[in-house]
Amino acid sequence: QGYLSATQLGDDHLLLVSETMALVVLLEETSDGIFDPIMGGIEEATTFVLMDRSEDEATPITTSTVGVSPWSSSSEDQLLWFGDADGTVRAWQWNSSWTAGSFVELAEEERLHMDDLGDSVLDLVVTDIDDAGGVEVWALLDDGLHLYAFESLAELLQVEANGATELVVTSIDGAWAVVGFGDDELRRGEVT
Description:
four-stranded antiparallel sheet; 14 strands
């Protein structure tokens, strides 16, 4: 058991996340393989470590997603979002137009202040359902489903999650359709 995710970030980068590590790997266009015949060793991939929680008592990463930024009007400006077992959500700036040749150092988003949500973050969904620039962050915690919205990421809604551990959010006829998945059941609701 444990969290593991891989998300391709365009043609040149891959986001790898486990309970103890979050990193972006530069995908090479061509490679001679992992063995370097000249140096006689194994070539290492170019990586950018976002979080290293490999220490014994470190808080595990529990979820991750890629989503729009509440502080940008450009759809290319995204955030790499992460939740952990202590109820903290952190994010790093990502631009979807970056390529291997134009990549810049990743920076943690300092305007995000979701560092004490109280319970373990089980899942995150980041949306802009109506494409109007108002970002919604849905956080599924041990104590229920929470909705944070707009630049301030103020909490607008909290409802019981009834054992859900994963979340899907979409729009149906102008209303948010929220589906929570648990071990033995499926829960669906609408928010208008």
